[in-house]
Amino acid sequence: MFSNITIKDKKDKYVLTLILLYFDFSSVGKQYRDQPYLEAVGRKLIEIREKQGITQEKLAELTKFDTRQIGRIERAETNTSISMIKAIADKLNIGVDEMLNIK
C-alpha cells in the first residue's frame, strides 16, 4: 500500500506514522463485541473453574496460556478467540457449548 513512498525527512516519517496509526486503529473499532455476553461467559468460566477447585494459575498451566489472559477472559476485558475457548473447555473437561450457553 505504501511501498512506493519515499521518506525524505523527519516530517515525512512523522506524517506516515500518523497515517499508519490511523488505519491501524480505525479497524479496531469495527470488531464486533457483545460486552454483556463476554461478561456472562467470564462469570461462567469462573463458576466452572471454582466448582472444579482450579485456580487461574492452574488453568493457565494446563492450557499453556498466561495467567493474565485467563483473568482478562474472566473479567471480559478481551474478546477471546474460539480456539482459546476450546482449549480452556478441553482442560476443564467440558464441552464448549457448556461454557458458551449463557441463559
Percent strand equals under 5%
SS element count, helices: 6
Give the SSE order as H and E letters.
Answer: HHHHHH
**Terminal Cα span:** 45 Å
- From the alpha-carbon coordinates, what is the Rg to the nearest angstrom? 20 Å
> What's the rounded overall pLDDT mean?
85
Main CATH class of the domain at 35-100: Mainly Alpha
Largest sheet: none
pLDDT below 50 for ≥5 consecutive residues: which ranges? none
Tell the overall outline: elongated
Second-tier CATH architecture of the domain at 35-100: Orthogonal Bundle
**CATH topology group of the domain at 35-100:** 434 Repressor (Amino-terminal Domain)
Keywords: DNA-binding, Transcription, Transcription regulation
GO molecular function: DNA binding; DNA-binding transcription factor activity
InterPro entries: Cro/C1-type_HTH (IPR001387), Lambda_DNA-bd_dom_sf (IPR010982), TransReg_Diox_bact_type (IPR050807)
Domain HTH cro/C1-type: 45-99
Which characteristics define this entry?
103 residues, 434 Repressor (Amino-terminal Domain), elongated, DNA-binding
Explain what the structure shows.
Helix content is 65%, strand content 0%. The chain has 103 residues and is an all-alpha fold. The chain has a domain at 35-100: Orthogonal Bundle (434 Repressor (Amino-terminal Domain)). The chain is elongated and about 60 Å long. The model has no long low-confidence stretch (mean pLDDT 85). Keywords: DNA-binding, Transcription, Transcription regulation. This is Helix-turn-helix protein. InterPro entries: Cro/C1-type_HTH (IPR001387), Lambda_DNA-bd_dom_sf (IPR010982), TransReg_Diox_bact_type (IPR050807). Pfam families: HTH_3.
